[in-house]
Amino acid sequence: MVPALEKELKNLSGYVTYKAQSTWQTGVSQETLDTVYRACWDSVVLEVEYKAKSGDNIDKIKKRRLGPETLYFANGGAYLIALDLTDKKIKTYSLSQNFFSQLH
Q1: What is each CA distance from 30 to 9, 35, 97, in whole angstroms?
Q2: How many domains does the chain have?
Q3: Strand runs labelled E in 1-104
Q4: pTM for the whole thing?
Q5: Cβ neighbours of residue 19 closer than 8 Å, sequence gap 6 or more
Q6: CATH number of the domain within which 51 lies
Q7: Which of 23, 46, 73, 77 has the most CB atoms lying inside 10 A of its own CB?
């Protein structure tokens, strides 16, 4: 992250608080949301088991090492944008049923 941007985000965090709430009805546990959010904020690598819903690996569970970039909410779901450290590509991961809580 760009140092100036990181500084501004830290300053902003004193005024804006993120707290996922069950009223968002994402179907994602609060613990998973908090863990992924902290990993994004602290740039911590996530090790997860993920079940692909499209592509060549559809319905296969695969261990992945992810460099989290951002967490976002859309269409009633929660999503993670992350760098897949195996193939060095930025990908979108749904945090719903196919994101298993093997977070490290």
Answers
A1: 23, 9, 14
A2: 1
A3: 46-51, 61-74, 77-84, 89-94, 99-100
A4: 0.66
A5: none
A6: 2.30.30
A7: 46
